[in-house]
Amino acid sequence: MDLISNADEYFMKQAILEAKNALSKNEVPIGAVIVCNNSIIARAHNLTETLNDVTAHAEMQAFTSATNNLGGKYLKNCTLYVTLEPCVMCAGAAFWTQITRIVYGAEDKKRGFSKTGKNILHPKTKVEKGVLQDECSELLKSFFREKR
């Protein structure tokens, strides 16, 4: 278990670096990485402002990158690390990728997929929440404090 939590923290730190990349572009600081066989196969961050596209969430960008990397549309035996709980759209996309595992940092109390009260993920997808939660939350809180 300790090995898993250390790996989860390491890869979440990589997602946090992506969130900081988003922040440097004045995007909402959310970052994601996808890991397969203990290697990062995709890195992404929010690009909704840059691309003028409401669907350009970090997770969506990461799914596209990872499937292109693997040469197929499914992400079996892969883990998504994302700094914020995925929204319903991203959880729906995760369902279709059949991703094995989702690990997120901060809970999204307003728009997170878990607020639906239904499991909208693939039945085989496992979820781990709260990894480096404080660090992930603080990035978002400070971003929105500055905006207000």
Structural overview:
With 148 residues, the chain is of the alpha/beta class. The protein has 4 helices and 5 strands, in the order H-E-E-H-E-H-E-E-H. A 5-stranded mixed β-sheet has the order 2-1-3-4-5. A hairpin with a 2-residue loop joins strand 1 and strand 2 (39-45). The longest helix is centred in the N-terminal third of the chain and has 23 residues, at 2-24.
Which helices and strands appear, and what pairs or packs with what?
Elements: H1 2-24, E1 31-36, E2 39-45, H2 58-70, E3 78-84, H3 88-97, E4 101-106, E5 126-129, H4 133-147
Parallel strand pairs: 3-4, 4-5
Antiparallel strand pairs: 1-2, 1-3
Helix pairs in contact: 1-4
Q: What is the topology, as strand order, of the major beta sheet?
A: 2-1-3-4-5
Helix content: 40-55%
- The helix count comes to 4
Structural class given helices, strands, pairing?
alpha/beta
Short précis:
This protein is of the alpha/beta class and 148 residues long. The chain has four helices and five strands.
Keywords summarizing the entry:
4 helices; 148 residues; alpha/beta
